[in-house]
Amino acid sequence: MLRVTRLLAATALAAGATVGFANMASAGEQLAAPLTIAKTVSGPVPPGTTFTATINCDGDIIVDTGGSTDTVTVTFDASGQPTSPDTFGFNDPGACTVTETANGGASSTTYSCEGNLGVEAPIKEGDFSATQVEEDVCPAAGPQAAPISVNIISEGQDATVTIHNTFVAPTPQSPQVAPQVVATPVFTG
Q1: Across the 189 residues of the chain, what is the mean pLDDT of every consecutive 10-residue run?
Q2: What's the whole-model pTM score?
């Protein structure tokens, strides 16, 4: 049964490129399948540090200014506050990966994902969402060290990926002590 569900899901993913989400958001409306990227930091973050995360999808499904794209970036300041848009909507189903491409020199980076499939519209025969019921928005919740995946399944879903960076205070350097110079008396006579 699981094999059949997966086969239907794979078939639906292939068909999904032509189906698309019915309700595209326009100005002032809610985004379809919003994905938010959040940043947390711990430890002494050097002033002026910046972070960059990239969302990369398997097709041009991210709604962006002027159309659709398969890749967008989100930037953050030293405190983890976004300095660019941090929530994106989608116009088709697909799979995306969130990767931090600039970690500001952090000693470690972890990813976690929380997703909610949301309320589905009534399922109609042949509807893409009807075959995706067993798919998870966040296949792995994390925290994990590897970049994390997000499935874009339904326009009613939402997800948040949190990237956490840990900074470690530099170890204080002991001052260099010059070796002691011992003078040897010189006898001349």
Answers
A1: 35 41 51 96 95 97 92 97 97 97 96 87 42 73 96 95 94 74 71
A2: 0.72
